[in-house]
Specification:
This protein is mainly beta. It has a single domain, classed as Jelly Rolls (Sandwich), CATH 2.60.120.200. The chain is built from two helices and 18 strands. Strand 14 and strand 15 form a beta hairpin. It is globular and about 50 Å long.
């Protein structure tokens, strides 16, 4: 979830391989390590359908909390409150609220150290916020983020929506000889207030992103890049900052809704 947009492309090598995940022993729908899977991205390995109401499944998800700009001059404070992150009738809601003191609270959840995987297909059915100033993202970081930092760990942005709500973008970020390298593409979103399916097709040698099953992004990868390792999910809604833009002065609340996230191999 960064704002750097430089282009580096490499030769394509398309080879689907195993998907691996990790989770707590008592986690329902526990994903396997990829052994015995078809490799055709037609076998469901893990999902969260966000069934029911109330709190999210903490066997899958962590809360990240706090403010301080998050490296992008964002103004929200991430909270673990059920006012900001909750399930409502089978849908995850990450809600931004303008508080009585003028501050903004929101939610940021991750699967770090709980659900991580390499390669496969991801489908996320989501509905995005619409009010100016919101910056929603469905994205991933390399599992070694804590030890090597960003951008060495690699980042895959499956969906980001910036100040202009008429499009969404997909981007990869990585380290290139001590410099941050990025490649992003965008696609028009004709009905931004509707649910859409944002998909990642990730293999050795390539990362592709689709909107409603239509591919709009591809990048060829190689072994000098960090995209042949386990990654974990991050879902959040930021406010303002480098890509959220000017916040509507009449803002009170807005929400990103996620119907499901599914990982296939």
């Amino acid at each position: 979830m960064r704002n750097i947009k430089s282009v580096l492309l490499f030769a394509t090598l398309l080879l689907f391989t195993g998907l691996s995940c990790s989770s707590d022993d008592d986690t329902p729908e526990e994903p396997n390590n990829g052994n015995g899977s078809s490799g055709n991205n037609d076998e469901l390995l893990w999902s969260d359908e966000f069934d029911g109401n109330g709190t999210i499944n903490t066997n899958f998800w962590n809360f990240e909390t706090g403010g301080g700009g998050w490296g992008n001059q964002e103004v929200q404070i991430y909270s673990s409150s059920s006012d900001n992150v909750y399930k409502d009738d089978g849908v995850l809601k990450i809600k931004v609220i303008k508080e009585a003191d003028g501050s903004y609270t929101s939610g940021r959840i991750t699967t770090q150290n709980k659900i991580d995987f390499k390669y496969g297909r991801v489908d996320i059915r989501a509905k995005l916020p619409s009010v100016a100033g919101t910056w929603p993202a469905l994205w991933m970081l390399g599992d070694n983020f804590s030890s090597v930092g960003w951008p060495h760990c690699g980042e895959i942005d499956i969906m980001e929506q910036f100040e202009d709500k008429s499009y969404v973008a997909a981007t990869c970020h990585w380290n290139n000889n001590g410099n941050t390298a990025s490649y992003g593409e965008s696609v028009n979103l004709s009905t931004p207030t509707d649910f859409h399916i944002y998909s990642l097709v990730w293999a050795e040698g390539s990362v592709k992103v689709l909107l409603d099953d239509v591919q709009f992004y591809t990048i060829s990868t190689n072994t000098t890049m960090p995209f042949d390792a386990d990654f974990f999910f991050i879902f959040n809604v930021a406010m303002g900052g480098t890509n959220g833009g000017t916040i509507d002065p009449n803002f009170t609340t807005d929400v990103m809704e996620v119907d499901y996230v599914r990982v296939y191999q």
